[in-house]
Design brief:
Largest sheet: 7 strands, mixed
CATH class of the largest domain: Alpha Beta
CATH architecture of the largest domain: 3-Layer(aba) Sandwich
Bound molecules: nicotinamide-adenine-dinucleotide
Mean pLDDT: 93
Strand order of the largest sheet: 14-17-18-13-12-19-20
Low-confidence stretches: 1-36
Number of domains: 2
Helix content: 40-55%
CATH topology of the largest domain: Aldehyde Dehydrogenase, Chain A, domain 1
């Protein structure tokens, strides 16, 4: 515990007599004395160790394994969504100025969906999968048993603080694990609400929230976990993976990257522009991991793309988008300065064709479109994660595809076209965590699709059954009886045994008969 004490004294006051937890003012005209003791619990190494020990005890006692426990906790998560949506919306507004629609739909409604699906399908997910056996093991039966991993750590990011915290926790609980959630300190209102609600609703012997920043996360990372599920930047992803390697802990890394959008001239341009705007500025003002990072199109078609985007932006956010209530603000001044620096770079600042207005006090940056910034500029080298959208124009679409292929694999890649052949070529030849043709970000809402990165954009995936799988060990179980104990596997070895065993392993029925019949 740290104890803070401070006093406010009148010049004339000579008395120094602290009164704990209160204000003592004998005579305001003579002196004022205030002594406040604030007890702040600091998370220390021993707390991290105790936490994991306690949760491991619950796991080992079987608390989290049964269907009933899992489904009860999931239903409690549903209750949080049902009973506390206004508080969640308000916390998101405090942290990000997130519009109610975005909070209610893209965080709470998506979570409800995830929970409902898990509740509905949990029994099926938990049931072992029958597996075929081979001639080698005949007679036998086999199955894949979904085993909980143990005690897992979920570290989440600030941009969708509820969705990105609770969605992995749904997977962890569904799979029967004890779980610690560490929300992002950059969304403090959301973090403290998550801590409060999860403590209030869930079984604290197996589900905990630790709030904090680098110090707390580092202490947590020193512990031995059975899985670490991290959402955030690739830079920190590397730190997570190094810490995990020490204990050979498997990781899921949900990272980011520069998600490109290719626009073909054979497209419905009005709808294309609307969907790009909704997926960029309409999703937390570009602060989303699968937000369009840059557009690639042909030199010939680009003027039409720019016009369409300008027209629809004005229709959505009016002539002064800085005043619009339908867009989140930038999360904090560090990120505001990072984005400003990108905009102010030489050979970039003069490429703005729309927007560019900023207000640091209000942490607002207008939707900004830039054309043909240098490919080696900061804005084209780093993930933007904000309301800036560069358009790169090239001679043809093949060159556009080449730009994507020459860069680290993104979390998402988008194509707008009506050309069937082009759609297929894009899906087959462009590598990305996920691909959407003719829309932005909506693959995230399809629970039958795995959500995750590849290469620099991450490893592992989740959503729907994939979340359950991410937190389960697929255990191979083979059942044999004592019937049919074949002597051929036991010494002394012989040529006949060798031939028969090889034939069995290769399922070569003809050779099996030849050996049995003594044919060469
Ligand atoms: N793939 C996805 O689902 C997804 C979703 C959202 C965001 N992202 C990516 O996340 C990034 C933005 O998030 P961010 O990284 O700014 O979020 P962030 O700063 O909130 O960091 C994420 C987490 O890492 C922790 N952290 C920060 N520094 C650390 C350190 N030195 N050691 C240990 N832990 C540390 C934070 O406390 C936080 O919980 C973007 O790259 C974005 O694309 C990915």
């Amino acid at each position: 515990y740290i104890v803070f004490s401070f006093s406010i004294q009148d010049q004339t006051s000579k008395e120094n007599n602290p009164a704990s937890l209160g204000i003592r003012a004998q005579s305001l005209s003579v002196f004022a004395y205030v002594s406040v003791y604030v007890m702040v619990k600091v998370f220390q190494a021993a707390d991290a160790t105790d936490l994991v020990t306690e949760l491991r005890r619950s796991f080992d006692d079987g608390v989290t394994r049964g269907y009933e426990w899992r489904v009860t906790q999931l239903k409690k998560l549903l209750l949080i969504c049902d009973n506390h949506e206004p508080e969640i919306v308000s916390a998101l507004h405090d942290d990000l100025g997130k519009p109610e629609l975005e909070s209610s739909v893209y965080e709470v409604a998506l979570l409800r969906n995830s929970i409902n699906l898990a509740v509905k399908q949990l029994k099926d997910w938990m049931a072992p999968d029958k597996a075929k056996t081979s001639l080698t093991t005949f007679p036998a039966s086999a199955e894949i048993v979904y085993e909980p991993l143990g005690v897992v750590l979920v570290i989440s990011a600030w941009n969708y603080p509820f969705l990105l915290s609770i969605d992995p926790v749904i997977g962890a609980i569904s799979a029967g694990n004890a779980v610690v959630l560490k929300p992002s300190e950059l969304a403090p209102a959301s973090s403290s609400l998550l801590a409060k609600l999860l403590e209030q609703y869930l079984d604290s012997s197996a589900v905990r929230v630790v709030e904090g920043a680098v110090t707390e996360t580092t202490l947590l990372l020193e512990q031995k976990w059975d899985k670490i599920f991290y959402t955030g930047s690739s830079r920190i992803g590397r730190i997570i993976m190094m810490a995990a390697a020490k204990h050979l802990t498997p990781v899921v890394l949900e990272l980011g990257g520069k998600s490109p959008v290719v626009i073909d001239s054979d497209t419905n341009l009005k709808i294309t522009a609307k969907r790009i705007i909704a997926g960029k500025w309409g999703c937390n003002n570009g602060q989303a991991c699968i937000s369009p990072d840059y557009i690639l199109t042909t030199k010939e078609f680009s003027p039409k793309v720019i016009d369409a985007l300008k027209q629809e932006l004005e229709a959505f956010y009016g002539k002064n988008p800085m005043e619009s209530k339908d867009m989140s603000r930038i999360v904090n001044s560090n990120h505001f300065d990072r984005l400003s620096k990108m905009l102010e770079e030489k050979e970039v600042s003069d490429k703005i064709v729309y927007g560019g207005q900023k207000n640091r006090d209000k942490l607002k940056i207008a939707p900004t479109i830039l054309v043909d910034v240098p490919l080696d500029s900061q804005i084209m080298s780093e993930e933007i994660f904000g309301p800036l959208l560069p358009i790169i124009t090239l001679n043809n679409l093949e060159e556009c595809f080449d730009v994507i292929r020459s860069r680290p694999k993104p979390l998402a890649a988008y194509l707008f076209t009506q050309n069937q052949k082009l759609k297929e070529r894009f899906a087959l030849t462009v590598s990305a965590g996920g691909i959407v043709v003719n829309d932005i970000a909506v693959h995230l809402a399809v629970p039958t699709l795995p959500f995750g990165g590849v290469g620099e954009s991450g490893m592992g995936s989740y959503h729907g059954k994939f979340s359950f799988d991410a937190f389960s060990h697929k255990k191979a179980v083979l059942y044999k009886s004592f019937i049919g104990d074949a002597a051929i596997r036991y010494p002394p070895y012989s040529t006949g045994k060798l031939r028969l065993l090889k034939a069995l392993v290769n399922s070569n029925i003809l050779e099996i008969f030849r050996v049995i019949l003594g044919l060469s």
